[in-house]
Amino acid sequence: MTFSPKRFIGAAFVALSFTLPAAAEVPALPGPNEPEARGLAIAKTSDATNIGYGDTTTEMQMILTNANGDVSERRLRFNTLENKNPDDGDWSMMIFDEPRDVAGTAMLTYAHILEADEQWMFLPALKRVKRISSVNKSGPFMGSEFAFEDFSSQEVGKYSYKWLRDEACGELTCHVVERRPLYEYSGYTRMVSWTDTTDYQVRKIVYYDRKDSLLKTLTFDDYRQYLGKFWRAHELSMENHINKKSTILRWDDYQFDNGLSEKDFDQNSLKRTR
Predict the structure, then answer these.
(1) Taking a C-beta distance cutoff of 8 angstroms, is the pair 41, 177 a contact?
(2) Confidence of residue 273 (pLDDT cuts 50, 70, 90)
(3) Is the separation of the CB atoms in 7 and 153 below 8 Å?
(4) pLDDT digits (tens, 9 = 90+) for 160-170
(5) 18 band by pLDDT with thresholds 50, 70 and 90
(6) What confidence score (pLDDT) does residue 198 get?
(7) pLDDT value for 195
(8) pTM to 2 decimal places
(9) Taking a C-beta distance cutoff of 8 angstroms, is the pair 262, 79 a contact?
(10) What CATH number should be reported for the domain whose range is 35-74+159-269?
(11) At residue 17, does pLDDT exceed 50?
């Protein structure tokens, strides 16, 4: 999420974590007659506000609803580590605790810029770590409406940008920006994001599939501030317009500065998550 890349507040996730200061100091943006430069500047402004978070831990509830309205729930832990290398992406670890049939399943992600992200899963039933192929990252993650690539840190340098317009979004005004993946094997041709013009918090992302048809919509709600400068959305809702399924992620409070290190984000640590 190439200039000094960190996270663009675009998808999930931090992967599905999005941080912004209470009152972002927004530099002058290029004019509407320069839509590509303006879109990139918006992404870089949002990204710059996230630098310095260090590491975080949190827990979350995953609520899956199928086309018939049947609901199932899962409990997870989610840890992130800011990469000290400004030219590379952050690291994250996701661990399932409930229900029993998925407990101990864990996913480790090393986000990169244009190189393929590295992802591994620990499958407790098989007692082994499995590397996730780059060509399969557009597939659904653990039966949810989030893809594997949605759970990778959304580095700014992964995309090209084009500002489309500014418009009302609820009680706010939002920049509407189109971004297109520059990396291989994405399941999307493009995404369109709505980022408010006050604190640069992302409010919505619309995803288009490889045929450029409307696929999914992700909305962000219940933002809370931490350490007087970092914001986190505590509810993310992904709606699939094709299969009529949806997934909601509800996050507990975040903990910062937990003393996590690279040793907590290696393949051996996947096996120690239970």
Answers:
(1) no
(2) low
(3) yes
(4) 999 999 999 99
(5) very low
(6) 87
(7) 92
(8) 0.86
(9) no
(10) 2.50.20.10
(11) no
For 185, counting Cβ atoms within 10 Å of its Cβ (0-12 exposed, 13-18 middle, 19+ buried), the class is: middle
Indicate the domain borders of the chain.
35-74+159-269
Cα 61 to Cα 6, 13, 20, 67: the distances in Å are 26, 15, 23, 20
> Cβ(132)–Cβ(148) under 8 Å?
yes
Token pair 């409010």 is at which residue? Answer: 203
Q: How far apart are CA 255 and CA 56, in angstroms?
A: 5
Output the DSSP codes for the chain.
---S--B-TTSBTBBS-----TT--PPPPPPTT-HHHHHHHHHHHHHHTTTT--EEEEEEEEEEE-TT--EEEEEEEEEEE--S-TTS--EEEEEEEESTTTTT-EEEEE--SSSPPEEEEEETTTTEEEEPPGGGTTSBSTTSSSBGGGGS--BGGGEEEEEEEEEEETTEEEEEEEEEE-STT-S-SEEEEEEETTT--EEEEEEE-TTS-EEEEEEEEEEEEETTTEEEEEEEEEEETTT--EEEEEE---EE-----GGGGSHHHHTT--
69-124 tens-digit pLDDT? 999 999 999 999 998 887 788 999 999 999 999 999 999 999 888 788 899 999 99
Instruction: Say what the pLDDT of residue 137 is.
Output: 77
